[in-house]
Design goal:
Elements: H1 3-42, H2 46-77, H3 81-113, H4 120-146, H5 149-157, H6 159-179, H7 184-216, H8 222-230
Helix pairs in contact: 1-2, 1-3, 1-4, 2-3, 3-7, 4-5, 4-6, 4-7, 5-7, 6-7
């Protein structure tokens, strides 16, 4: 290998590492917004919605940067095998993270609109949903960074946990609507906030499935979980 080829290889490796870091940076911003959503469930200052809008703008900028850099890698280097799966999957992951930012921003806005309505048992459940979302995101990003299929699968398994919490919130809010009909509007914002948390978990699950595909070269489906449970 001559000097020019060595330089090209180093440049290519650096570009792949930078793409990885951009995704981790983007995921870190989404994490901050998920935590902001949790905080907004209990503290509904209007300034939180403004901060969420600014954070979402930063996520969108990172989304564009990832798309630009991934396109350059594909055009200049024609990656193969796992590198090709990585670069093409990065384009999917950045779309997931961008949508997650939108959902987190919307959750903050919904929470602000709840006003003084704050039934403690429901708030506790919403906070728990946010905690699980953050834990799942942390694990999914770590799986992406370390190319770890087992971590990706463990994230995938937790999707049911969020679904259970979501249905618990729905049952609780239905009772609230029946018992406190003058708070129906605020209760509706609670329902949408809970749904956003559930959707965030769905996107994280899809991110984990994408990590599994990058690492294994196989599409993730329910047979993967069955095989893991049987082993």
């Amino acid at each position: 290998m001559n000097i020019e080829q060595q330089h090209t290889l180093r440049s290519y490796d650096a570009q792949l590492k930078h793409l990885l870091q951009l995704i981790l940076d983007m995921g870190g911003e989404v994490r901050k917004m998920a935590l902001a959503s949790k905080a907004a469930f209990r503290s509904r200052e209007e300034s939180r919605a403004t901060d969420a809008k600014a954070a979402d703008k930063l996520i969108n900028e990172l989304d564009q940067k990832v798309e630009e850099e991934a396109t350059i890698v594909l055009a200049l280097h024609s990656p193969l095998a796992i590198d090709l799966r990585f670069v093409t999957s990065v384009l999917k992951i950045t779309g997931m993270l961008e949508r997650m930012g939108d959902l987190a921003k919307n959750t903050v806005k919904r929470s602000v609109k709840m006003g003084a309505y704050a039934p403690e048992p429901i708030i506790v459940k919403l906070e728990r949903m946010a905690d699980v979302v953050v834990e799942m995101l942390d694990e999914a990003l770590l799986a992406f960074k370390t190319n770890d299929t087992q971590k990706a699968i463990s994230v995938w398994r937790r999707d049911d946990e969020i679904d259970d919490l979501y249905h618990e919130v729905l049952r609780m809010i239905q009772k609230e609507m029946a018992n406190v009909p003058d708070q129906v509007v605020a209760s509706t914002h609670v329902v949408f906030a809970a749904k956003n948390m559930e959707r965030l978990a769905d996107y994280i699950t899809n991110l984990a499935k994408t990590v599994y595909y990058i690492s294994s070269g196989k599409r993730a489906d329910k047979t993967v979980l069955k095989q893991e449970n049987a082993s």
